[in-house]
Protein 1
Amino acid sequence: MTPLDEEQVYPALQDPEAKWYVIHTYSGYENRVKTNLESRIESMDARDKIFRVEVPTEEQVEMHRGQRRQVQRKVFPGYVLVQMKLDPSSEYVVRNTPGVTDFVGTGDLPTPLEEGEVRQILRQAEQPQQRVKITFQKGQRVKVIDGPFTDFIGVVDEINTEKNKVTVLISMFGRDTPVDLDLLQVERL
C-alpha cells in the first residue's frame, strides 16, 4: 500500500474533465480515508480517473501546561478533497472506500468545487501560516500567564489575529490600563 507518487499524479492534472469534489467522512478518519482511497486507486487501477486526494491542514500554536506547541489541525474536519473525472466507475471507487459517508452535493449528484476555491485551499495548505488558537473573546476576563504582568487579571479589549496580539485592560493604580500582549500570554478564566 503505497501512496501515489508525484509523477503519477501531476501529469494527469492537465485533463480538462478533472474537477475537485468534497467527500464527507467520519470525523477523525480523514487521514485514514485518504490512505484507504489511495490504496483503492492503486488496486482498482483508477489512476487515470482519480488524480489527487488531499486533507487540508494548517499549523496552530497553542499553550499546553505553560509550553508553546505546534499542532496540525484539519481545516475542514470530516471532509476530504478529491480531484477526479466523475463517472460511474470513479464514483464507485470513492463511495465504497471505508470511512467515506458520501459526496457533498445536491441530491445524489456530487457538486464540483470552483477552481478559485480549490486554489485558495491548496495554497493555504502548501504555504502554512502559524495561527494561534484563540480561546477567548472581546469583553471576556482573562489571566496573564507569561511576561511582566503574570497572574494579573484583566478584560480583553481588542484582539488582532493578524499580529497575534491582544489588548487587555488591567486594573493598576486604581484605573484600567491597556496592555498589549501576545495571544499566548493570556488564558481564559
Protein 2
Amino acid sequence: MTQDAIQLNSEKGAASVAPYRYALCVEYAGAGYNGWQIQKNDEVPTIQGHIQKALSVVANEPVSVVCAGRTDTGVSGTYQIIHFDTHAKREQRAWVLGGNSNLPDDIAIRWAVPVDDTFHARFSAQERRYRYLIYSTRIKPALLSKGVTWTYKPLDIDRMREAGAYLVGRHDFSSYRAVACQANSPVRDVKALNVYRSGKLIVIDVQANAFLHHMIRNIAGVLMSIGAGEAEPIWAQQVLEARNRCAGGITAPPSGLYFVDVQYPQSYSLPKSELGPYFLNITG
C-alpha cells in the first residue's frame, strides 16, 4: 500500500469517529417493554430501541447508546445512565427536550451532560444500586399493580434484615443467579443490603459493584420466604454456600424492581441520583 493510500485510509477513519460524547440519565417504567436491550426483531418494544430512535431524530444521524446496566422485561429504572457518540453538537437541553418529545410517556430523559471519551456508561461504573418494592397487604393494589410486587402474606422485616446480612460482602452468588446467566464469574461484592418500610411498602435496597442476571429477584424471593416465616434467616446463607441455583427459592416478579443509582469517579461530575422511585417517602 502506498503512503498516499495509507494517509487516505487514516483520514477516512478519523472522519468516521464522532467527536462528541454525551452522558444521559434515563427514567422508565418497564412494564410495557421487553427489557432494556434492543432485540433482533426491532418490532419488539425495548427501552434502548425507543431511546436510540428519539436521539437519532435530535442528532439528525443514527445514534447508538450504551447503558450502565441492562434491565430485564418489566424492570424499571430511575437512574439509568447511558452514553453515545455523535457528530452533532447540541445544547444539553436540546437532548433532553428534543429527546423527550420523541419518546413515549413512560420513558423520559432526566438530564444530559457532555463527557470526554474516557467515560463509558458500563465500564466506568464503580457501583450499582437497585431497590425492590414489596406491597404486603391482604388486598392487592390497583394503582401500582405494575410498579410493585404484591404479597398477601405478612412479612417480618427484622427476619429479612437478619437474612440479608449474610449476603453482604464478596461471595460466589451462583445460587442467586439465573441458570442462563452469561457472566464469566458468579463472584460479586455486595456493599450494602438494607430492608426497611416506606409507608405500606417494604423495600429491599442493595448496592454492589455489579449484579448477575436475576440476582436481585432471586435474593428478594429468598428474603420474602424468610419474612413470611417459611424458612429461618440462616437459610439465606445456606443457599449462598450451596452455589447451586436449585438450592434457592422462587424468582420474585420483575414488577417491583428499580435500577436507582450508579456510582462513577467524581472527576466526571455527573448529577447525583435522587434515589427513586419518586413515590417513596425515604431518600437515604
